[in-house]
Amino acid sequence: MMTVLVKVIGVSAYVYSKIVDMAAKVEWTANDYAAQNILADIVEKSGLSLRALEQKTGGAASHARIGYILNGERGPVKLSEFIAICEACGVDASDALQQVIDNADATQPANTDEDRAKLALERAQRAAEYGLAAMEGEKRDAEDDGVA
After folding, report:
1. Which end of the chain has fewer CB atoms within 10 angstroms, the N or the C?
2. For residue 18, what are the contacts with CB-CB under 8 A and spacing of at least 6?
């Protein structure tokens, strides 16, 4: 079906996928932003790397997806991802969800590019407290094998 549609409208599959992505963008709600903020705090306090979180969630969320969630990129966190990440960090998901509900009204989304840039800079500055995000050489291979 997609191939036929791509030929009919005369664009490449890549361009078509981008058009579909733009059309499918989800508007984030106050609850979505509150969930993202709560998870960012939970993950930060856990000190776990994104790859470690992926392993501890049993693959319920990839390390890339967890990064997108924490940075407020792409779609908002799904309930299954929220619960898996909370459990991986040793946090009661029902308590965290109650925090989301309590904080949703007070949560204001980062609407402008400037707001998003400030938020990204704040998170990048805090990330330095946790050391390297990725390892090189033998240590990286050991971490990928679950040996680190």
Report:
1. N
2. none
